Model the fold of this input.
Amino acid sequence: MKLPALHIGNLTATVPIVQGGMGIGVSLSGLASAVANEGGVGVISAANVGFNEPDFKTNTVNANLRALKSELLKAREKAKTGIIGVNIMSKGHHYEDYARCAAENGADIIFSGAGLPADLPACVEGTDTKIAPIIGSPKAARVILKLWERHHHRTADMVVIEGPKAGGHLGYTREQVKEHESDGYEKEIKEILAVVKEFEEKFEKKIPVIFGGGVFDKKDIEHYLSLGLSGVQMATRFVATKECDAADEFKQMYVNAKESDVTIVQSPVHMPGRALLNPFVKAFTEHRIPPQGCFHCLKTCDPATTPYCITMALIRAVHGDVDHGLVFCGANAYRIDKITTVHDLIQELTQD
Done:
């Protein structure tokens, strides 16, 4: 089947694929613009996006805001007519500053999860930036949509369901992840679609709903479209591309991974996360690795008790020090067997 376009208000992605935001530094302007140029939605991760700035350690917030603006402008220059989004974690300090920066510098859409982004509508007020909460349950969908209706008199422009097979931080307990190992989260998807439909009728607008988490090939995309979804979010597949902003050593970890290497780790944000097993994961599982300083990036992280500094772990990994860093991945990372290009990947995912 020919995949349908994804309509987000007045925006149209000719390919119904949103490239998931991956931090730190895995999805910046290079990857996002390449996906946007192929007709999908390219997404820059705002998670400590200024990690390469010279004053990152001493002036973290300003370094991040400066870099986020720069990455957005670079992405727009490379993909003049494509759709460029920004992913911002709700649990981060200075969330509103990053959201306003994204909106003021031309982000077409802000995706926000890892908590409920209660004040996101206020951050984009007066701009054309669209908003999309990332949720994992019917309850979360209803809570955030009611919250936005009550306090901001508006609703979402799109909703992203992130299932338990996603990479990085998961909005599920370890038990829930195990419970959904062999299903496609279909019952919950249908319940979330029903919740969103209520708000579509209330606001008289179409709210596309997309699903991410374990989506690997065209067969998967067609399956989720058949459930009534408007598209999919994919992140893991885009890591093993030449345009991905991470170091080659990071990408090669995916190519070399075995199924037994994909594991669930405990994150300092008090959420489980899916990552590849490496010496660093083994080390912090056995003993605490005290952080050397703190970037005050996460509201729920206490440097006095955190098992390790997630910011430095992710920076080491994206720079290529994969033995001493944290390499987040989706459940199907082990199925990747080569580095390709974004163009060839999109062709593989859309052509018969």
